Amino acid sequence: MPATPPPIFTTGYEGRVQDELLDRLVAEGVRVLLDVRAVPMSRKPGFSKRILAASAEARGLRYVHLQPLGTPKPGRDAARAGHAAEMARIFAAHMETDAAQVALGAARDIVQAAPTCLLCFERDPHFCHRRIVADMIAAATHQAVAHL
Q1: Dihedral in degrees, nearest 10, Cα atoms 34, 36, 40, 45
Q2: Euclidean distance between the first and final Cα of the chain, in Å?
Q3: Multiple choice CATH, 8-141, 3.30.70, 3.90.190, 3.90.950, 3.40.91
Q4: Domain parsing of the chain, residue ranges
Q5: d(CA 3, CA 42)
């Protein structure tokens, strides 16, 4: 009987510190941290791309940033304003673009090769585009999605 593939993990770093988040990923068996932010910078210490990548890799996690899987600015603005449905509509249209489709294919390959966690800012996955990305990948790979 074939082994059950690991879930596609997702997490948001809102309200968290870098060490706690990375320790949790390692404890869950994650091997790849897949950053799906359009703009991988943060005012929150430890979560800008270079620092996060170095810290993840120091713990044995591969860091990958797929910018085309991030929410375009109008979608981020809608999310900040609390308009989740508008953000989802904008993001769905964005995901139809060639760049997003290529990045989605790359994400599918990554997720199927190693236990992976999609990262964005928003704490609640129901108000974040990473849930949509994870669900799109899961529809193709038949993996479960686990929000950490």
Answers
A1: -60
A2: 28
A3: 3.90.190
A4: 8-141
A5: 38
Residues 6+ apart with CB under 8 A from 54: none
Q: How far apart are CA 144 and CA 83, in angstroms?
A: 27
pLDDT in tens, 60-103: 999 999 999 999 999 999 988 989 899 999 999 999 999 999 99
| 8-12: strand order across its sheet | 62-65, 32-35, 116-120, 8-12, 145-147
Predicted pLDDT of residue 2: 60
**Residue whose tokens read 């809102």:** 14
Vertex 136: Cα angle to 134 and 142 (nearest 5): 85
Give the number of other CB atoms < 10 A from CB of residue 24: 15
Sign of CA dihedral 27, 28, 30, 33: negative
Write down how long the chain is.
148
CA distance 118 to 108: 11
User: What whole-number distance in Å separates Cα of residue 47 and Cα of residue 29?
Assistant: 20
Interatomic CA distance for residues 71 and 80, integer angstroms: 12
